[in-house]
Design brief:
Blueprint (H helix, E strand, L loop, with lengths): L9 H12 L5 E3 L7 H17 L4 E5 L12 H15 L3 E8 L2 E6 L4 H4 L24 H17 L6 H16 L8 H14 L3
Parallel strand pairs: 1-2
Antiparallel strand pairs: 2-4, 3-4
Length: 204
């Protein structure tokens, strides 16, 4: 007598495929911690910016469906949707789509999009300006060198022939765009240098 095969639930099968496709490092599970909408947006933005610098490509964000939320609407899901649209305008997200009723697949933009994205004046919650050093002298010589190379590439792309009058301002602008993607913690300037090298590579 043949034993009946156990059927694998569709949700379990999908989860197995997601684990293979994304892995733990490219998955943000907000459903596990049940954050507030504001906390979810803050955590998601910080995580996505770091993933962008690390060239993650596609990532998975799990928000949950909101079955236990008032009126069955997940406030976390709604907050993440709004954030993704905002980050697309700001050069962090290239595109996103609903993966399941409680998750999204997000494609991250190249790092250079951070400063090439057009400025939008209709942000409902304008992001805080990224931290900037009091002067470029506060950075190490290696970081300043990378910033200068990046500023030169950027000005060349804009067709600026006499670059020197614009160099320091462009270096500060590049610093502000990239530094916003680097989380606080040890070896922050080393991680900043890695991000700057990545941005230079994308100009090749």
């Amino acid at each position: 007598m043949k034993r009946a095969r156990r059927s694998v639930p569709l949700s379990g099968l999908r989860q197995a495929f997601d684990e293979v496709r994304f892995g733990a490092s490219r998955t943000l599970n907000l459903r596990e911690t049940l954050p507030t909408a504001a906390a979810a947006a803050t955590r998601t933005e910080s995580w996505l910016r770091q993933q962008q610098v690390e060239r993650a490509g596609e990532v998975l964000i799990i928000t949950g469906r909101g079955n236990s939320s008032p009126e069955g609407i997940s406030v976390v899901r709604q907050a993440v949707i709004g954030l993704l649209h905002s980050l697309k305008r700001r050069g962090v997200v290239s595109e996103h789509h609903e993966h399941t009723a409680g998750s999204f697949v997000v494609t991250l933009a190249p790092v250079r999009e951070l400063w090439e994205a057009p400025k939008r004046r209709r942000e409902h919650t304008p992001p805080a300006p990224p931290p900037a050093p009091p002067s470029l002298d506060a950075l190490t010589p290696e970081t300043r060198k990378l910033l200068r190379h990046l500023a030169e590439r950027s000005l060349d792309a804009l067709g600026v022939h006499d670059r020197e009058p614009f160099m320091e301002g462009e270096m500060l602008r590049q610093f502000g765009a990239v530094a916003a993607s680097i989380a606080d913690g040890p070896h922050r300037e080393a991680r900043l240098q890695s991000a700057l090298r990545l941005a230079l590579d994308q100009y090749e």
